[in-house]
Design brief:
Layout: H1 3-21, E1 33-34, H2 39-43, E2 51-58, E3 63-66, E4 69-81, E5 87-99, E6 104-110, E7 116-119, E8 122-130, E9 135-146, E10 159-165, E11 188-193, H3 196-206
Antiparallel strand pairs: 1-2, 2-4, 3-4, 4-9, 5-6, 5-8, 5-10, 6-9, 7-8, 10-11
């Protein structure tokens, strides 16, 4: 993604997020997915920091743009430090996603008003530390492009999204985090839009 396109995307994110805040967007139609973390599991956890994605929600229908060819997925991600120690270092909050019935894919997640970090051409939100027990929610846009980039876009209508915390998408060290945690296996949360139960209902109606 070149600089002009990234600037355009950021501008679009600001405009679109303002519209959503003013009630100009349709009512939220995606419940999303939330992790349940029990007190017992915390009491048995090792001492240390532990970052996890507790919730991920698609806040409305993805927005299809034809010039440039982009799909903007309005995505809310909540992350929490469920460990017993604070995280002082910076870490990333991001996502990747694709249309399961189209040719768009992306890994750039931008949240208006939040700092972002770029690694290997991939943009994520920058979180500057998180205290033990604290959580933070980001509302932004996951940007999807046609694959290959020169292809005619087929935006599709069904999407798979993987929300991530402390998870680098740079291909040189794909999926490796930078924060030392007691559990390195709980840094991702997968959701679908529309939710899978709606996909099943739509198929039943179609038949």
């Amino acid at each position: 993604m070149n600089g002009k396109t990234m600037v355009l995307c950021i501008g679009l994110c600001l405009v679109l997020s303002s519209s959503m805040a003013l009630g100009e967007k349709a009512t939220i139609s995606q419940i999303g997915t939330t992790k349940v973390i029990s007190g017992e599991s915390l009491s048995l956890a090792k001492m240390g920091a532990d970052l996890t994605v507790t919730s991920a929600k698609v806040l409305g229908d993805p927005i299809v743009l034809t010039g440039p060819q982009l799909v903007l997925v309005p995505l809310e991600i909540t992350v929490k430090n469920v460990g017993t120690a604070s995280v002082a270092a910076d870490f990333e909050v991001g996502a990747e996603g694709w249309a399961t019935d189209g040719n768009v894919y992306g890994f750039n997640y931008l949240a208006p008003g939040e700092d972002d970090i770029e690694r290997g051409g991939r943009h994520s939100v920058l979180c500057s530390g998180l205290a033990a027990g604290a959580e933070k929610t980001y509302s932004g846009f996951l940007i999807l492009n046609p694959q290959p980039i020169t292809a005619t876009m087929q935006p599709g209508s069904n999407y798979k999204v993987i929300a991530m915390v402390d998870c680098d998408l740079d291909p040189d060290h794909y999926r490796k985090g930078f924060v030392s945690e007691t559990d390195e296996t709980n840094n991702e949360l997968t959701i679908y839009y529309p939710p899978r139960y709606l996909m099943v209902a739509q198929k039943l109606v179609a038949t």
